Amino acid sequence: MTKVDNHTPVMLAEILSLADPVLSLPTSTLEGQAKRYLDVTLGRGGHLKAILDKYPHVSAVAFDQDIDAIIYAQKLFETEIAEGRLQLVHGNFLNYSPEVHGNFDFALADLGVSSPQLDQAERGFSFYHTGPLDMRMDQSLTQKASDILAEYSEAQLIELFKNLGEVSSPFRVVRAIVFDRKTKPFETTTQLSGLIERVDGWRKKGVHPATQYFLALRLEVNQELVVAQEGVRGLALGLKPQARMAVLTFHSLEDRIIKRLFKEQLTQWGRPLFKKVIEPTREELLSNPRSRSSKLRVFERILQDAMESKSKNKYR
Ligand SMILES: C[S@@+](CC[C@H](N)C(=O)[O-])C[C@H]1O[C@@H](n2cnc3c(N)ncnc32)[C@H](O)[C@@H]1O
């Protein structure tokens, strides 16, 4: 399996086989244009590298809001950038625009954080390493997790952990946060995870009690649910006729948003390619534990003619 600097791309085989029907021919039969791939979550470039290597005729645009990912990719893809095959964009893919970045035959959004982001203590995503309570994927954002813990009211923190962390009863933890912050602000990951461990204790074997609290803070800092809804909707508008878009999610709230978007909200543009969600195989789960809880959904843009006849039929 392709492994790029401690990051193993999730469901790579599945994604390559989904891309094959739309990327394998050098030009689009409809418009005669060269094939184009859009990767809006570059990370360590695992999926991107596999696609560029497999399809030498494909050119690509790749987004990442983390400057470290862009710097890493500038080296890894030096040749492709010099050849004009790859354009890197530093920024949030909420800013993707077909007019500026072009239209695509295949697009991938591998939502969430990358392994290097999780593993670097100074990024503050993990309670297994002591680091600042940061959690920003985009280092230019102004609000860090520590700011949320310092500034949100008790009621706002309860709502946050309930809604985004799906913690059914965060009251005791929030009360303890609000009490402790009067004398000492929350600055490190282990300061917060230690408090949660003390107050909530271990309930589920193998699941750290801080897991859902950390997830809620991360989603809030990076506005990840807004990105899943609005960002992915925006990508659909840049798909060429018959093009496909694959979205990988890692938790239920995000998957629910993508499912609705594909099934109910983007029906003017296309349809989900499969009724059921795709999950990693047993082999992948064993070889790459970070694929756990991943879900893959695929959307296919319908031909404009087919859409028109579909809407005419509706009125017959
Ligand atoms: C799960 S990793 C992607 C891994 C990548 N597919 C690979 O194989 O190496 C997610 C990456 O997307 C970036 N990212 C997440 N949300 C983003 C957004 N809204 N806009 C731009 N980049 C984003 C993160 O900074 C991270 O580097």
Core attributes:
alpha/beta; 15 helices; 14% strand; DNA polymerase, domain 1; binds S-adenosylmethionine; Rossmann fold; 2 domains; seven-stranded mixed sheet; 316 residues
How large is the radius of gyration?
Answer: 21 Å
* Overall mean pLDDT: 92
In total, the number of domains comes to: 2
Name the ligand types. S-adenosylmethionine
| Unreliable stretches | none
The proportion of residues in beta strands is 5-15%
Count of DSSP H/I helices: 15
Order of adjacent strands in the largest pleated sheet:
3-2-1-4-5-7-6
What's the CATH H-level homologous superfamily of the largest domain?
Answer: Vaccinia Virus protein VP39
The helix content is 40-55%
Please identify, by name, the CATH architecture of the largest domain: 3-Layer(aba) Sandwich
Structural class: alpha/beta
Listing every helix as H and every strand as E from the N terminus to the C terminus, the arrangement reads HEHEHHEHEHHHHHHHEHEHEH
Distance between the termini: 51 Å
For the sheet with most strands, the description reads:
7 strands, mixed
State the shape.
elongated
CATH fold assignment of the largest domain: Rossmann fold
Could you characterize the architecture of this molecule?
With 316 residues, this protein is an alpha/beta fold. The protein folds into 2 domains: 12-115 and 224-314, Vaccinia Virus protein VP39 (Rossmann fold); 121-222, DNA polymerase, domain 1 (Orthogonal Bundle). Helix content is 44%, strand content 14%. It has 15 helices and 7 strands. It has a 7-stranded mixed sheet with strand order 3-2-1-4-5-7-6, sandwiched between helices. Helix 8 (154-163) packs across helix 11 (211-222), helix 9 (171-180) packs across helix 10 (189-200) and helix 12 runs parallel beside helix 13. It starts with 11 loop residues before the first helix and ends with a helix. The site of S-adenosylmethionine has 24 residues, from helix 2, strand 2 and helix 12.
